[in-house]
Each structure stands twice: as C-alpha cells, then as structure tokens.
Write a structure and sequence with these properties.
Udp-n-acetylmuramoylalanyl-d-glutamate--2,6- Diaminopimelate Ligase, Chain: A, domain 1; UDP N-Acetylglucosamine Acyltransferase, domain 1; twelve-stranded mixed beta sheet; ten-stranded parallel beta sheet; 4 helices; flat
C-alpha cells in the first residue's frame, strides 16, 4: 500500500516540515526503518536516533527540529498508532478472511448469524448462540450455548467461550483464552472439598481486548464483569464475580481474586495480585509485583507487599538498603557499651 505524506498529515492533523510529496509504503521502528517507511519519536531521549535512521519521514512533537522530513503533531505516539492502522486494516498484504461458514463448522440448533460473518474451520457453535455482524471467528474456537458475540468482534484460534457468556462489540480475544470457566469454589466438610456449582456468567463489554492464555471465571451467582474499553494482557487470571471498570489496563501475569472490584481507569502492572472482596478505586495504579491486601482509595499509586503508598514504599526500600550499615553501627555501639561497663565495674 502506498500513501502520500500529505494524506498522512491530514489523517493525524500534523504539519509537514520538508518534502510533502514523499510516498510512504510502510511503518517501522526508528532503528529498523528503511527508505519509503515512516517512523516516530515520542520520547526526547531517543531524538539522537533521528540522525542515523533511514526512514523517509519521522513523526515528532511540534517543537522538534532535524534535517529529516518531519511530521509534527501534538501527540507523536497517538499519531503513529493511527498511521499503523492504515496498514493493519490492509492486513499487511494478506488476503482478508473469507466471509461465510466453513463446511467443517459444527452448528447447533437455533444459532443466529449476522451479516458478513466469517466462521472458519472446525469451529463449534452450540445451541442458541447469537453472532453479530462482521464477526470473525478463527479455527478451532468453541462457543457454548446461549452465548452472544457482538458486532465486529474478532476471536483468534483456539479460544473457548463457555455457555451463557455475553461478549460485546468490537472486542478482540487472543488465542488460548478461556472465558466462562468455573470459579474456584469449594465447601470443606470434614476435610473433603465439595464443589460449589458455578451458575453465573461473564459479561465482556464493548471494545475490550483480551490477550493470549487469559482465564476469566464465571460468577458463582451473578456475573464477572469486564468494563468497556479495558485491555487485558497475556496470562492474566480473573476470578469469579470480579468487576473491572471501564478503560482499565491489566498487565501480564496479574491475578485478581474473587469478588474484587476495580474502578475505572485502573492500571495493575505485571505480576501484581489483588486479594478477594476488596475495592480498588478509580484511577489507581498498582505497581509491578505488588500485593494488594486491603482496599485502596481512588487516585492512588501503591507498590510493594503488602501494597502501601508508593512514596512510603520507596522510603522503606531506601531504609532497607541501609540496614547492613545500621547493623554494623549497632554492633560497634554494643561493644563500646560493654567495654564501658567493664571499666565501670
């Protein structure tokens, strides 16, 4: 695909400094870019790379100066994202998935299919499944009975969506993910763990993206809810009846225990954990590998285990680094006191 730099400038509301007649044939990182490609610099510490890049044009902030042809914008990263979408929508030169239902698909009773759907080889659609318009379901996907999938959703191969799950519009679900698995509920009686039936569901609202090998358990009773616009990274475990608010970010290897409630705009960084029955307020950031053991008020940043305000945790870390020196001082003081006591006696 070929696009003029002038057309790209119009798309991202940018200002061209240099040759506006350049034709762009692709996108790439600043180190890898070659002639004909466009790249970007959003972080000032990488501006030195502009002198050595082979890109034909660079998307930069409005105050950047350089000898290359530049496309100045208010937000270079967002602008580059919009430019990448041009090539993503073109499938990078690959043919678009064929519309229709493959002959190997297993279709249950009373299944409803929207317009322009693509259901690829060896998919299983159980009874009373409802698929919206422009949905793409890749091969070896299982969709349980009475599940609904909204318009424009894309499901990659080998995803399992269990029964009575509600997937919204324009969602993206990556390979290996399981939505609607049983919650981890057992009633111990005399040393024996009796399974508690998990009869709830999962609701995934519009514009949610779920990474690879994510597990989202159904509610024991009621729903596990993933709010609109939330993005979930790979290898995340979300337990029964968890509620995650709109536009939150859940990074890889996070575990969220049952019935925890996360507000809107929450970020939970890699390998962090949230205990059950807690509330994490709106716009909270939980740092990587933090362990949340009690509820957190809105607009907070916490880290460490147990999680505490980030500034407090930083002071604690500094103190711990000084601990060996402090132990040495205490031992010297003990020796001096002992020597003084001996002299006194």
């Amino acid at each position: 695909m070929e696009v003029s730099l002038k057309e790209i400038a119009s798309l991202v509301d940018g200002e061209i400094v240099g040759d506006e007649g350049i034709i762009i044939t692709g996108v790439a990182g600043i180190k890898e870019a070659t002639e004909g490609e466009i790249t970007f610099v959003a972080n000032p510490k990488y501006t030195s790379l502009m002198d050595s890049t082979n890109a034909s044009a660079i998307i930069v902030a409005k105050d950047v100066e350089n000898g290359h042809t530049l496309l100045r914008t208010g937000d270079p990263y967002l602008a580059f994202t919009k430019v990448m979408e041009l090539w993503a929508n073109g499938n990078n030169g690959e043919p678009a998935p064929s519309v229709g239902v493959h002959s190997t698909v297993v279709v249950g009773k009373n299944v409803k299919l929207g317009r322009r759907v693509s259901v690829q080889a060896y998919v299983v659609l159980e009874d009373e499944v409802e698929i919206g318009d422009d949905v793409i379901i890749n091969s070896h996907v299982y969709v349980g009975r009475k599940t609904t999938i909204g318009n424009g959703t894309l499901i990659y191969p080998r995803v399992t969506v269990r029964e009575k799950v509600d997937i919204g519009k324009r969602c993206i679900i990556h390979s290996g993910t399981v939505i609607g698995s049983d919650g981890f509920g057992f009633a111990p009686v005399k040393g024996i763990h009796h399974k508690v039936p998990q009869i709830g569901t999962v609701i995934v609202e519009d514009d949610v993206e779920i990474g690879a090998n994510v597990t989202i358990d159904r509610g024991t009773i009621g729903s596990t809810l993933i709010g609109k616009g939330t993005k979930i990274d790979n290898l995340v475990q979300i337990a029964h009846n968890v509620v995650i608010g709109e536009n939150s970010i859940i990074v890889a290897q996070v575990g969220i225990s049952g019935t925890a409630v996360l507000g809107k705009g929450v970020t939970v960084a890699g390998q962090a954990g949230v205990a059950g029955h807690l509330t994490v307020g709106d716009n909270v950031t939980v740092a990587a590998r933090a362990g949340v053991t009690k509820s957190i008020p809105p607009d907070s940043c916490v880290s460490g285990f147990p999680a505490r305000p980030h500034d407090e945790e930083k002071r604690l870390k500094v103190s711990l680094r000084k601990l060996p020196e402090l132990v040495k001082v205490v031992r010297e003081m003990e020796q001096r006191i002992h020597t003084l006591e001996e002299k006194s006696e």
